[in-house]
Amino acid sequence: MTQLFAEHLFAGSGVFLLLVMAYDRYVAICKPLHYLVIMRQRVCIVLLVLSWVGGFLHSVIQLSTIYGLPFCDANVIDHYMCDMYPLLELVCADTYIIGILVLANGGLICTAVFLLLLMSYGVILRSLKNLSQEGRRKALQTCGSHITVVVCFFVPYIFMYVRPAKTFPLDKLLSVFFTVITPILNPLIYSLRSSELTYAMKKLWRRNIISHIE
Questions:
Q1: pTM for the whole thing?
Q2: Which of 5, 142, 181, 207 has an alpha carbon within 20 to 30 A of 28's alpha carbon?
Q3: Dihedral angle sign, alpha carbons of residues 99, 7, 22, 38
């Protein structure tokens, strides 16, 4: 239960943080002159707290749906972690209603946030026509990193939870992807926006090529 709570706490908070980051990108690109007024420190703290509260509530709801259910004698699941659907397969009772609750709390919320993110970036891309060429380049560079992270996180998550309560062999690979691979890639994806880092990487690449030729 502790593992299940921690897993959904961090995953749920991450979902809401990505939504907050999309709002930050919208204000920075569409309302640049009002950015410091809108995204002041107090607002940022409130948005951060709300993200963690949303993740906490999501995790508590997931935990309450499965805690106290009658489990069979089997205590081995075909998964890398104690997730909802693998645990439901060990329950010695009808899990149809529980599966619907898990789908509503996890899958539908995740899908709704993903659609909101796509809509927000649709609005941002429409506003790019009012920017200069340099402004468009910087805006696309900023949004590109965030969209990459959103796709890497939400696509496997939606596949795993927007469906009936049933497990598939592919679930283990996808769970490793969005719980391990995506967080590891996040610093690299976001840091590629830095012109200094990009220049340093190009310089190091050229140096390695020259040393290899010599």
A1: 0.75
A2: 181
A3: positive
